[in-house]
Amino acid sequence: MAGRPRASSQRMLEEAASELFLEQGYAKTTIEQITRRAGVSRNTFFNYFPGKADLLWVELDASRTVLTDALAAAPADTDPLAAVEAALATTAAALTPGRAPLVLTQWRVMGIDEELKAAGLARALAHADVVEAFLVGRGLDALVARAIGLAVIGAASAAVGRWAADGPERRPLGTYLQKVVHPVLEGFGIG
Amino acid sequence: MAGRPRASSQRMLEEAASELFLEQGYAKTTIEQITRRAGVSRNTFFNYFPGKADLLWVELDASRTVLTDALAAAPADTDPLAAVEAALATTAAALTPGRAPLVLTQWRVMGIDEELKAAGLARALAHADVVEAFLVGRGLDALVARAIGLAVIGAASAAVGRWAADGPERRPLGTYLQKVVHPVLEGFGIG
DNA sequence: GGGAATAAATAGATCGCGTACAAGAATTAG
DNA sequence: CTAATTCTTGTACGCGATCTATTTATTCCC
Question: What CA–CA distance (Å, rounded) separates A142 from A137?
Fold first, then answer.
């Protein structure tokens, strides 16, 4: 019930890609260069990543599952909005001060363009979907649930962006988050 | 001081593209098919649009300039957040009930995929940038300004999406907008 | 041990977007 | 009429992404 074992790993491709992105920028780096440095064939790349842009958002994708789990673990009798706030704090805790996603701190040297921003936003949208689904499950109006999801993730994105930009000496992400996430939830009547 | 006049027009390409998108979906429609139906060469397409995805967001791009102008026209002594709310209402008024962007109402038959969502999000991000710049100009903290911009545009996106989905019998967009935009601004202390 | 069965890696081809460059066609200014 | 300007078109190419087929490595079972 098990075929050929994986000879390469996602991490090898990530590291090769990160090196090349820092050396020559994102746009000028081809998938073939990445796979050559990682010692695999070009096609193998697509066994590990759906596309080139996905290389940069691995941490963000991981944080989505953290968010999902944190929301699922919320007791049923807690206020939904408070649960969202707590879940975001839990998710933020996973991004320790030293481990900011590379793309957020090095986007200048990588030459990030609109395509990349859009790819990041698509990830953020997935987070919003998670929050929205949770709120709908708690009985909130569909429009309001979606609005809260998008608004709160928008605010959180601002916090993460600023946090990453502030460099290694920054305070924990939670500090930034609370400053902007709480007002949004407050506006929607957090209890 | 005037060279060869334009033989084709942006509108012709938009209409040809809309037809094809509705007939066979977005992904299966090639730029060559669009230009052939419009009676021009493939290269001419790129004189009018930077890319294929831009065909669907013409109205949204236009609404960004409306938003920018509305914010610029706000009196200097009005509360910044109230000015944002008013400017969004003005922008919404331009999207009359009958004229929802085609992509928002027909995205099912067009087979919109992730790429399209991302392109729409990039447009929304541009709106958020406009709001952010306005608030920074009014002296708000950089992080807070960005958070408000992203949050309020997120909420507005939810409203527009729902409004479009509700079909021709829907109420005006302003109704949807106010329901979700006001809470966000309220949370940030709208005066 | 020696096949099936399974799954990963590779090779090769193709499609379509987007860019670049050069040449041609239509217009106005002098 | 010529020159300058601007749109249009042709041609070519790089790269991302998909598809199909083939090879290689591993486990399960007889």
Answer: 10
d(CA B80, CA A125): 27
> Which token pair is A103?
């793309």
- Whether the beta carbon of A51 falls within 7 A of nucleic chain D: the reply is yes
| CA A70 from centroid of its chain's CA atoms | 15
Q: Do B179 and A117 touch (CB under 8 A)?
A: no
- Predicted TM-score (pTM) above 0.85: yes
CATH 3.20.20.70 is right for the domain spanning A57-187: no
Say which residue, A153 or A121, is predicted with more confidence: A153
Domain assignments of chain A as residue spans, ordered by start: 10-52, 57-187
Chain B residues with beta carbon closer than 8 angstroms to that of A131:
none
In angstroms, what separates the C-alpha of B144 from chain A's closest C-alpha? 6
What is the per-residue pLDDT across B13-66, written as a single tens digit (0 to 9) for each?
Answer: 999 999 999 999 999 999 999 999 999 999 999 999 999 999 999 989 899 999
User: A20 CA to C21 C1', in Å?
Assistant: 29
Q: CATH fold of B55-187, please?
A: Tetracycline Repressor; domain 2 (1.10.357)
